[in-house]
Design goal:
The structure holds two protein chains of two kinds.
Chain A lengths: L13 H5 L8 H11 L5 H15 L5 H17 L5 H21 L7 H20 L1 H9 L8 E6 L3 H12 L5 E6 L10 H11 L4 E5 L3 H12 L6 E7 L2 E2 L5 E4 L2 H10 L4 E4 L15 H6 L13 H20 L5 E4 L6 E4 L2 E3 L3 H10 L1
Helix pairs in contact in A: 2-3, 3-4, 3-5, 3-6, 4-5, 7-8
Chain B lengths: L10 H7 L5 H13 L6 H18 L5 H18 L4 H25 L24 H10 L13 H5 L6 H11 L11 H6 L2 H10 L5 H24 L2 H4 L5 E5 L3 H11 L5 E5 L6 H9 L9 H5 L11 E5 L4 H5 L4 E5 L2 E2 L5 E4 L2 H10 L4 E4 L18 E2 L11 H6 L6 E6 L6 E4 L2 E4 L3 H8 L8
Parallel strand pairs in B: 1-2, 1-4, 2-3, 4-7, 7-10
Antiparallel strand pairs in B: 5-6, 6-9, 8-9, 10-11
Helix pairs in contact in B: 2-3, 2-4, 3-4, 3-5, 3-11, 4-5, 5-11, 11-13
Classes of the chains: A alpha/beta, B alpha/beta.
């Protein structure tokens, strides 16, 4: 997963310069620190912030140096994660942004690099603060999907965007129902983000149901008849995503594809609420483990065993790893193909999955 | 108008009243006509709106486009509220607003270029992430302009080009172009602008040279263009007929509309094929029968249709099978394609069409018959179908149960006569607009290109 080479400014081979640049700041621990301290931060933003921190810490004098530093630090950062796809969306976006900024300024300010650099870092910070505001904009755009009195929202996994949408809808005094689909059949601990959002909605007077994933099909069959009595019942599936690929496929925590497929089968529209900085220029040829691995994710759900012993070992490590990883926002994911997605709700409005490619082109070129 | 009698309230009476009366009165009159559905149908509503806005623009005393925008918005909102389900009203209002904004920008560019000088880094990222509502095109032009100041006016094609059938490929072409163009080579950008904005470029540059003095004349001209487009659109759509109908095919169609009729006639001029026509009871079966038989309708509602009356398909040597709606599914397996007309196309490609179209489309899907939807560009609406029921329009109940059979109604809890409904984009295969065939996946872009982002919410 290396970044594509910049369009205008050719980067010299990194091995020549990387010796000269030793990142004084450990991006990986900086990233982990950010994720741990700020519960509302997303991996992409944390990655961008880490890179900007690395840029700030390093005394740089040339454009080439800056770009090389960026590309090496982002490679280090991405290599440290089990699932680097959401991060790569952020790091590549920042690199692209900086290259564009340089391209726009090559003629005029090449003499004074330090001021250019200062300006760049300042702008990068502005960039971060703007991307952070995306979530509340998405909530605004998603509001018309939740119609008063007739809507049942099905959601799966804990997503901060979905939280923001549901809270905004509840705060704007809409009355709707929420069904949380729980990946495990057991009770969640009371301090998990999952039950936190349940509690928030309950305190706002929104009826909430929690069903295990295994019971989803049955649940959908159960709600339909009673709701059909109102003239316009409205059942929607609302999911968050960690990344969106070039063909509009969404990468989200594992099970999302299953939930989407069930919803699609029941003619329930599937909406993914996602910030457009999560769009990444990767094109999946299929939607399995090997395709995620091609994008740099260290994940293999499908493992055959030949002995009982082996199974126990891997089972445990998988379970332990999954638990540890999901705490760091690095859990197992799957890809929901674009055919199952009715629309993506982004901060720039509601778009079809087909429009992702164009949005990416707009972001990049 | 030679007759002594004033025309019945409708498009004709509105048109007759328009030149003489004061503008406020015309606005009120159109609102009442729309409310009472004395003007209905996408084309009629679009025409009336365009005529009224032309009058509004010509009578408003405004020294600058900004005032005109608020005035048009104000009138537009009233019209949209009067006929919320006639989406073409809003479309035309947005188009006119777009034309005014175009003028406004031309004026601004004439005095002070609003582009960022090359010296400072634009504070926004390349892709305009947390987009303030700047149209995408403005983004491109502002970035390119730092390399060639003379070009900043060509960022968005002038409205004319869209109406005359110029494919609205601007953003893609710009962006793809910048992949291959090396940044240092951007000075020689004379090459790029013709590719980008086609025929509109010469006009846009000429406006830079002589800053417009009377912006209202330009806007009125743009509105006249819109009206012309409304008149020509179905003919333009029909122009693509030969690309879509092959010899000895069987084409399934539903209800009757001028655009489908023209489309089929155009194909009939060169090819022999079979048409299966479902009658669409109870709302337009009479019209459908009349169109197939070649008899002029005396239906009072359809002034325009009787104007634009076409000779029947049989006269052109086409085999026409007129069938009741109940036979749609049975005969669908024989068809090679389904061609229907849209009342409106929404931003995700969903189609508002005559009630019953969805049943037809679902039958087509079952038999894997491709569905082609004919939609003139003025029917493309930037709204998103949050609620499919919002687009179901209800008509005269008497057409379902006659008034004299009242006792039957009392036995029923409700009698409903839907006139239009929403067909989801999943079941449509291809759109044909005045710009040519558009795949459903690309429809969102074509819809977006019709309007300015600022005007999406009226």
């Amino acid at each position: 997963m290396t970044s594509s080479s910049p369009a205008g400014l050719a980067t010299p081979p990194p091995e020549r310069l990387s010796a000269a640049i030793n990142p004084q700041i450990d991006v990986v621990s900086h990233y982990k620190n950010l994720i741990a301290t700020d519960p509302s931060i997303t991996p992409a933003i944390a990655a961008i912030e880490s890179l900007v921190a690395a840029l700030t810490a390093q005394p740089l004098t040339t454009i080439t140096e800056t770009l090389t530093l960026l590309s090496t630090t982002s490679t280090t950062l991405l290599a440290s994660r089990n699932n680097p796809i959401p991060l790569s969306a952020g790091t590549e976006l920042l690199q692209r942004y900086i290259i564009t900024s340089f391209q726009n300024n090559t003629n005029t300010t090449s003499a004074d690099f330090s001021s250019l650099r200062r300006q760049l870092i300042q702008n990068s910070k502005l960039f971060i603060s703007r991307t952070k505001s995306a979530r509340s904009k998405i909530a605004q755009h998603a509001l018309p999907f939740i119609r008063d009195d007739a809507t049942t929202v099905i959601t799966y996994g804990s997503s901060r965007v979905i939280d923001a949408i549901l809270s905004l809808a509840a705060e704007s005094r809409r009355y709707f129902h929420v069904i949380f689909v729980n990946p495990s059949s057991g009770q969640e601990p009371s301090d998990s983000p999952f039950s936190q959002s349940t509690n928030r909605l309950l305190s706002l007077g929104i009826p909430v149901a929690t069903v295990p994933l295994a019971a989803l099909s049955h649940t959908i069959a159960s709600i339909r008849p009673s709701n059909a009595r109102t003239t316009s019942s409205n059942l929607i599936l609302l999911l968050g995503a960690e990344a969106v690929l070039e063909n509009g496929a969404a990468i989200s925590n594992i099970g999302s594809r299953l939930v989407s497929a069930i919803a699609h089968d029941a003619s329930i529209p599937v909406y993914f609420a996602v910030e457009s900085y999560k769009f990444t220029r990767q094109f999946p040829l299929n939607y399995g483990d090997s395709d995620l691995q091609k994008m740099g994710a260290k994940q293999s759900v499908l493992k055959f065993r030949t002995s009982l012993e082996e199974d126990e070992k891997s089972e445990m490590s998988f379970g332990v790893r999954a638990e540890k990883a999901s705490a760091e926002g690095d859990g197992t994911v799957d890809i929901t193909p674009p055919e199952l997605i009715n629309a993506l709700i982004t901060e720039n409005g509601t778009i079809t999955a087909d429009a992702v490619a164009e949005e990416l082109i707009k972001l990049w070129f | 108008m030679a007759s002594d009698l004033p025309p019945p309230p409708g498009l004709a009476s509105f048109r007759a009243l328009l030149p003489s009366g004061p503008v406020e009165k015309s606005i009120e009159y159109l609102i009442s006509l729309l409310r009472r559905r004395q003007i209905r149908g996408p084309k009629e509503c679009a025409l009336a709106t365009a005529w009224l806005l032309r009058k509004v623009v010509s009578t408003t005393r405004a020294s600058e486009p900004g005032k005109l925008i608020t005035r048009v918005q104000e009138v537009g909102k009233k019209l949209v509220d009067a006929a919320p389900r006639e989406l073409t009203v809003g479309n035309i209002v947005r188009r006119v607003l777009g034309a005014i904004r175009e003028e406004e920008e031309n004026r601004d560019n004439g005095s002070t270029p609003d582009t960022t000088p090359g010296g400072s880094i634009p504070p926004t990222p390349a892709g305009e992430l947390p987009a303030p509502p700047i149209p995408a095109s403005a983004m491109y032009s502002s970035r390119d302009a730092s390399h060639s100041p003379a070009r900043h006016n060509t960022g968005r094609p002038v409205l004319l080009s869209q109406q005359t059938g110029q494919p609205p490929l601007r953003p893609q072409v710009t962006s793809m172009f910048s992949i291959i163009s090396h940044p240092t080579m951007r000075h020689s950008s004379g090459v790029s602008s013709p590719i980008r904005s086609g025929s509109s470029t010469p006009m846009a540059t000429s406006q830079v040279l002589q800053p417009t003095t009377d912006f209202r004349a330009e806007i009125l001209e743009a509105i006249t263009e819109i009206v012309d487009e409304l008149d020509q659109a179905d003919e333009l759509v029909a122009g693509y007929a030969l690309e879509h109908i092959a010899p000895s095919e069987t084409v399934f169609t539903y209800s009757t509309s001028t655009v489908v009729q023209r489309f089929l006639l155009k194909a009939a001029s060169k090819r022999k094929f079979t048409v299966i026509q479902a009658e669409s009871y109870p709302n337009s079966h009479k019209r459908t029968h009349a169109t197939t038989m070649g008899v002029k309708t005396t239906d009072d509602e359809d002034e325009l249709d009787s104007d634009a009356f076409q000779k029947p398909l049989i006269a052109a040597g086409i085999t026409v099978l007129l069938i009741p709606d109940s036979a749609i599914f049975a005969l669908m397996s024989r068809a090679n394609k389904v061609i229907i007309a849209a009342n409106s196309v929404l931003s995700n490609g969903s189609v508002v069409a005559a009630a019953g179209s969805k049943a037809l489309v679902k039958a087509a899907r079952f038999h894997r018959v491709p569905v082609i939807v004919l939609a003139e560009t003025y029917k493309l609406s930037p709204l998103y179908p949050y609620d499919p029921f919002e687009y179901v329009d209800y008509g005269d109940v008497q057409k379902v149960v006659e008034w004299q059979d009242r006792e039957m109604i009392t036995g029923l809890s409700a009698v409903r006569n839907p006139v239009s409904e929403l067909v989801e984009v999943e079941d449509v295969d291809l759109f044909v607009t005045n710009l040519g065939g558009v795949s459903k996946g690309f429809m969102y872009r074509v819809v977006r290109d019709q309007y300015r982002d600022e005007d999406l919410e009226l």
